[in-house]
Specification:
With 465 residues, the protein is of the alpha/beta class. The chain has 14 helices and 16 strands. The chain binds pyridoxal-5'-phosphate (PLP).
Length: 465
């Protein structure tokens, strides 16, 4: 590490952290007796902490974000140059990077047409929800306000996004939530017994799981249902790729009942699964696509809500209705650093052929994780797509009972001690976070994959000796 900070500066940083910082998603009691980890520097796939310890980052900044890796000078320069030209103007006016990124993004999303800039994934989802509600009032006389979301999916931390949240661990004690959000069942083949579909497999299972969405629409009344919001591959709910047959049936159902399809690509978007967007693996045509994390790989805060020309047309001025436009703003949606960074981020992914690397390295890593199942019976299932993989740990393969989450945490801790950062998730059932997460930057090499797998092998042997 070539840090600019002296040891004294860094010990002050740790004290300031302990005295004043409220970390995200963390229980703080342990920090009374141990130091927090402060990430001081990053380069490529690696980061260094305050003690100079090096880590191979297998989770792209902890939450699937730094898709092109750390220390990209060209992104920093693009942001710097843009900031020196003009840092900000409210997005009721345009900007050079804002227009150029919108054009570039849409070129990767056939069928989509309009880009709305915001700051976070939660906010992008909120914008789509608001549009669905406004369409319900404008087009359907105040009906069709219901938004369906899926068990185990997550759409953000704000209250309406949480109202569409399928993960109990995140929601308990934060209600009451917004009305007219209705849950549909998950589509996880590994836990299909929870759906009463254990007798089905493959495509038959996928179609039956999608049909459970139709049952909810019929129960609620199709005239009340405006949209269905789904993650293409569920992230925090346990890294779940929907089964074969699921997506085409979902699309059919949406069409049949005039339900808008909102795909939440906050995690999968911008290359994470080996295509620009997760939905593009399945040939579906969404009405809304939201994205955040990989858009600028964390070099600037930017998120986008993308929709079709058909949706956009519904919001165009109408002389008989002065309220018929999207009466919404996001102040920092006018920051130019975001689209400037996003443009360069996309150029890097194209020029370095990172989608291809993601698909290849993802296949390799998945095969190696599956290989570990022979040796470690604690791995009940390996799932995911591209460089977005999960390994679910179970106490026994027949009952599929999740391991105590403290054990999963120990694996994460042991890997950290050996210099590899991974994550753990499955926020569906409080206290049962038992799915190890792997989502390295798209630049990963075969040597790095081997290091992650070897370290995992050793950590599992140690924790489950
Ligand atoms: N949607 C999904 C699928 C997510 O995983 C997340 C965050 O992890 C969000 C939305 C919320 O994004 P943000 O934290 O940027 O608000």
């Amino acid at each position: 590490m070539q840090g600019a900070f002296s040891e004294n500066d860094l010990s002050h940083v740790v004290e300031a952290d302990k005295a004043h910082l409220w970390h995200h998603l963390l229980q703080h009691k342990p920090l009374e007796t141990t130091d927090p980890r402060v990430i001081v520097e990053g380069k490529g796939m690696r980061v260094w902490d305050q003690n100079g310890k090096e880590f191979l980052d297998a989770v792209s900044g902890g939450v699937w974000t730094v898709n092109v890796g750390y220390g990209r000078e060209s992104i920093a320069k693009a942001v710097y140059d843009q900031m020196m030209k003009v840092c900000y103007f409210a997005n009721s006016a345009g900007s050079i990077p804002g227009s150029l990124y919108a054009e570039k993004l849409i070129s990767k999303m056939p069928g989509m047409s309009r880009v709305y800039y915001v700051n976070s994934g939660s906010e992008a989802n909120e914008k789509a929800f608001k549009m669905v509600r406004q369409i319900a009032h404008k087009k359907y006389g105040g009906k069709k306000t219901k938004i369906l979301y899926r068990d185990r999916d997550y759409h953000g931390s704000t209250l309406a996004a949480m109202s569409a949240g399928g993960q109990d661990e995140r929601n308990v004690q934060y209600g009451p939530f917004a009305p007219d959000f209705v849950k549909v069942p998950h589509c996880m083949e590994y836990r299909k017994h929870e759906l009463g579909l254990e007798h089905l497999s493959g495509e038959e299972f996928g179609i039956a799981a999608a049909n459970q969405i139709e049952e909810v629409i019929l129960r609620e009344g199709p005239e009340t249902v405006g949209a269905l919001c789904l993650e293409p591959v569920t992230a925090g709910g346990g890294v779940i790729e929907p089964p074969v047959g699921y997506w085409p049936r979902v699309q059919e159902i949406c069409k049949k009942y005039d339900v808008l399809l909102h795909i939440d690509e906050v995690v999968c978007g911008i290359g994470r699964t080996g295509t620009w967007f997760g939905y593009q693996h399945y040939g579906i045509k969404p009405d809304f696509v939201t994205m955040a994390k990989g858009v600028a790989s964390g070099y600037a805060a930017i998120a986008c809500m993308v929709t079709t020309e058909e949706v956009f047309e519904m919001f165009k001025d109408d002389s008989s209705d002065p309220l018929n436009y999207f009466r919404d703003i996001s102040t920092f949606g006018g920051c130019t650093a975001g689209p400037a960074a996003a443009l360069e981020n996309m150029r890097i992914i194209e020029d370095e052929d990172l989608l291809d690397n993601c698909a290849k390295m993802g296949d390799l890593m998945r095969a190696k994780l599956e290989g570990l199942m022979e040796k470690h019976s604690v791995i009940g299932d390996v799932r995911g797509k591209g460089l977005f993989l999960g390994a679910e740990l179970v106490a026994d393969r027949d009952s599929k009972t999740p391991v105590d989450e403290k054990l999963a945490q120990q694996v994460v801790g042991e890997m950290g001690a050996q210099g590899v950062l991974i994550g753990v998730t499955n926020r569906s059932i409080p206290g049962k976070n038992n799915t190890l997460c792997f989502s390295p930057a798209l630049i990963i090499t075969e040597d790095d994959v081997n290091k992650i797998i070897d370290t995992l092998d050793a950590a599992l042997s140690k924790v489950f000796a």
